[in-house]
Structures are given as structure tokens and as C-alpha cells.
Specification:
146 residues; mainly alpha
Length: 146
């Protein structure tokens, strides 16, 4: 699936869910939670592939590299919704992020890391790189990126 389309779908699905579960606390809270979770879902869905690519590039496609890439990508992506909802003052934070956490982060991140670990282009452009920060976030560092 196209990364942009997946990000838009994540915005609609997870933003709607967060708004729904917080609607009992009033319309303003529902809108804040929905927009916060939706925008986060968009950004995280779009970025998690780049993060997984960067981690795999740095750590390699060995079993340990794949596991560490998953753990690092998941941990970083878990921090963002917690921070966003803390700033927004969302009341039912865990209820709001649960679907996105399980499906949108854990499952997607696992699939991204597993799939990317088998792509020769992701690891092939690792050697000889002189741009570690850009490479980690995969910002124009390798033509094999999506």
C-alpha cells in the first residue's frame, strides 16, 4: 500500500476512534483527542517505514538487527501519542491509543521491519555512508527508499 494513502487512512480511522471514546467528556475533548490522535496517526504511519529502514540500515538484517529495529521503532513511536495526549489533556489516553498502538504501531512496525529486512536495497546502501543522521531517518540518503 502507498505510504501516503496508508497515512490518510490512519488519520481517519484512529482520529475517529479517539474522538468517539472521548465524546462522553464533551465535544471539545472529542475534537482535541480526535485531531491529536489523527494527526499523530498520519505522521507515525508515514514515518515508521523510514524509521524501520534507518534502523535496519544501521543495525543490519541479522536476527538481532531485525529485533532491535522493531524495538527501537516501536519505542520511539509509542512516545509520540503519549506526549501528544499529555499536552492535550486527553482523559482516556490508553483507550484512545489502544487500537493504533496494537494495529497501527505494533503490527505495522513488525511487518515493516520484517518486510524491509528482506529488501536488498535497504541494507545495500548502508556501506560507505557519510551521512549518519540523514541515513538513520532515511532522508534522501539512499535511492532505494520509498
Amino acid at each position: 500500500m502507498n505510504r501516503n494513502l496508508a497515512a490518510c487512512l490512519a488519520l481517519l480511522v484512529y482520529g475517529s476512534w479517539a474522538a468517539f471514546v472521548n465524546s462522553e467528556h464533551g465535544a471539545l475533548m472529542a475534537w482535541r483527542a480526535g485531531l491529536g490522535q489523527g494527526l499523530y496517526a498520519f505522521a507515525s504511519t508515514w514515518m515508521v517505514t523510514a524509521m524501520a529502514r534507518g534502523a535496519l540500515r544501521r543495525l543490519g538484517a541479522s536476527p538481532a538487527g531485525v529485533v532491535l529495529s522493531f524495538i527501537l521503532s516501536f519505542a520511539v513511536m509509542l512516545c509520540f501519542p503519549l506526549l501528544i495526549h499529555a499536552v492535550l489533556g486527553t482523559i482516556d489516553v490508553w483507550e484512545a491509543i489502544a487500537p493504533g498502538l496494537v494495529v497501527g504501531q505494533w503490527l505495522y512496525c513488525l511487518c515493516a521491519v520484517a518486510g524491509l529486512s528482506r529488501e536488498p536495497g535497504v541494507i545495500a546502501c548502508r556501506a560507505g555512508s557519510h551521512r549518519p543522521v540523514e541515513d538513520f531517518f532515511f532522508v534522501g540518503a539512499c535511492p532505494a527508499g520509498d
